[in-house]
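Reviewer 2 asked us to include a model.

Predict the structure of this chain.
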Amino acid sequence: MLLAPCRRLLSNLGFCSIASSSLSISQGRSAVQQSFSTGSDASWESEVDTINEKFAEAREEIEFAREDAETVYFNESAEEARSAVGEVLGRWQALLARLPEDEQAKLQRAMGLKMEQLKAELKELDEMHA
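Predicted model (structure tokens):
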């Protein structure tokens, strides 16, 4: 049972990762870079990169919490996952709020499903505990 905190530490140090999260980052970055075409989008692209990185971290936290189900570490892991998801969704909403409507639509098409996936995974995690 002591493996859960060690696993999280190793992951934070970069020794472990979820391959699908890395793939999602690459796919998300490509889709967004193709969608945005004006020169003033550099700050948006930087924020999109940050959101993609935080998305991968949130998915890892959700995975850790799933692995910790039925252990004494579950509540702590689930709370860390909720916090990570909250940060991603907060950044997502803030970015959408400052974009013009046409750019919002492009970004929503490029990344919206990922955000819905994150919400669904968190809901599933919450249902594990209920």
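The chain has one domain: 16-129. The radius of gyration is 16 Å. We have added this to the supplementary material.
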